[in-house]
Amino acid sequence: MKSLLKSTLILAxxxxxxxxxxxxxPAQPAxxxxxxxxxxxxxxxxxxxxxxxAVIGDRRTGNRVTIVYGxxxxxxxxxxxxxxxxGTLVPYGKVWRTGADxxxxxxxxxxxxxxxxxxxxxxxxxFTLPAxxxxxxxxxxxxxxxxxxxxxxxxxxxxxDLKKEALExxxxxxxxxxxxxxxxxxxxxxxxxxxxxxxxxxVPQ
Length: 205
Known about the structure:
disordered N terminus
């Protein structure tokens, strides 16, 4: 089953990266998707899943970035009780799967730069390492197609700094977004509870 999932993911990634038509398609809105757009939990999963995608830069020639991830709620799916997220459900100082169930999948059709950190075109699993002092790292891991708790640090490709900010409106469900920035680059955002983490990137020409 795991090998079938991984093979399916690899084929999907190859199709996304190699399909020029996708790069020329209009960018999708970077707003949080409605509940009708989410995939209901499959057997073995505990949270809805979603796919977000955006073209960064020119709508016809820009770089498409795609994220596939699980979207857990603040309420415990079994007891229905409210949970404290940062520092409790997501402990400080420990690597988190950045979502729920399978490891979060990040795909970029072209190389991108997070500051001085270069991320080649391809597919990666995303993990997050938050710290109590407000700093956090977004981890790009080479291993894909596995359960999110099966993190292998030896497969890390790069770690980039995340910026922490307070949300104006609390997010009951974990939400990610890919947005265009005024300078022509993009921003990856992670939002849950009262906190937003973000990282800006550019697309080298």
